[in-house]
Write a structure and sequence with these properties.
The strands form 2 sheets. The protein has a 6-stranded antiparallel β-sheet with strand order 6-5-4-9-8-7, with helices on both faces. It has a 3-stranded antiparallel β-sheet with strand order 1-3-2. It has helices at 15-27, 36-43, 47-59, 77-106, 149-156, 160-169, 185-198, 235-241, 243-260, and strands at residues 34-35, 63-65, 71-74, 109-116, 119-126, 142-144, 201-204, 211-219, 225-234. The protein has 2 domains: 15-75, Arc Repressor Mutant, subunit A (Orthogonal Bundle); 82-260, GAF domain (Beta-Lactamase, 2-Layer Sandwich). It is built from 9 helices and 9 strands. Residues 1-12 have low confidence and may be disordered. With 265 residues, it is of the alpha+beta class. Helices cover 46% and strands 19% of the residues.
């Protein structure tokens, strides 16, 4: 690999970033470690620059000294990042046909999320095929657990001890966004019990007035809920067609995805 392959045509002001990524690419070819002198030669950077960049990558946990003196190697942190990326790509490949079918059947906005730490993250979205309403949600958006339908799914099907922990650690974020937002932990406990009983969660204008959302869990082979499917639409439209019209196809789509992930019933 030529030393300037990665850095040519790079945006201004990002030289250090691209040089650091260049070193990561070089190190990926040396699983047992690469000497500083060789890294300098391959990257066409002077040793002091390479050493400075390595120190930064080391402090962030991406590289570490190798057994051979003066050599460096990648850490498993990059594997973890790669696995997360691969997992997202794989799940979308699996889920997309079922989500597209749900979108066509209902005509409404279809959302697909994964759980990431203390929030849900939207990883796939299909716009409605009927009507004019477009939600503000976008792929990559982080959604709070307490006021989103998919977020409440993750709380309902997660560890019971987590709810109190989440409530106390996010006190500064749990806010009354609308008159329907649940900000009392006891009311949330009742809401989550109801979700587990009925098998779906609702955002009844708790995040945005005029917009409602229905979400269901997606289970994997270990009965864990790491993904959720939801339908968003105007509250007026939901009242017109009724919840049951959407819940049945929504549950069917989630069941199909769950089965492809290895769930057996």
């Amino acid at each position: 690999m030529k030393g300037n392959d990665l850095t040519k045509d790079k945006p201004q002001g990002s030289q250090s970033l691209f040089r650091g990524l260049q070193l990561l690419e070089i190190l990926s070819n040396y699983p047992n470690g690469c000497p500083l002198a060789l890294l300098s030669e391959l990257s066409q950077m002077n040793k002091s620059t390479v050493h400075r960049l390595l120190q930064g990558l080391h402090s962030c946990g991406y590289v570490k000294p190798a057994p051979a003196a003066g050599s460096y190697r990648l850490t498993t942190k990059l594997i973890a990042i790669g696995q997360k990326s691969l997992s997202s790509l794989n799940i979308i490949h699996v889920a997309a046909p079922h989500l597209e079918s749900l979108n066509i059947t209902t005509g409404e906005t279809v959302n697909f999320s994964s759980r990431e730490d203390d929030h849900a993250i939207l990883i796939y979205k299909l716009e409605p095929t009927t009507g004019m309403m477009r939600t503000r949600a976008y792929i990559g958006q982080h959604m709070p657990l307490y006021c989103s339908a998919m977020g409440k799914i993750y709380m309902a099907y997660g560890q019971s001890s987590y709810i109190e922990e989440y409530w106390h650690s996010h006190q500064d974020q749990i806010q009354q966004l609308t008159r329907n937002t649940i900000t009392n932990i006891e009311l949330m406990y009742k809401e989550l019990e109801l979700i587990k009983t009925q098998g779906f969660a609702m955002d009844k204008e708790e995040n945005e007035l005029g917009v409602s959302c229905i979400a269901v869990p997606v289970f994997d082979i270990h009965q864990r809920v790491s993904y959720s499917v939801s339908i968003s639409l105007s509250t007026a439209k939901l009242k017109q067609i009724g919840e049951k019209t959407l819940i049945k196809p929504l549950k069917e789509a989630a069941k199909s995805i769950s089965e492809e992930l290895g769930l057996t019933t």
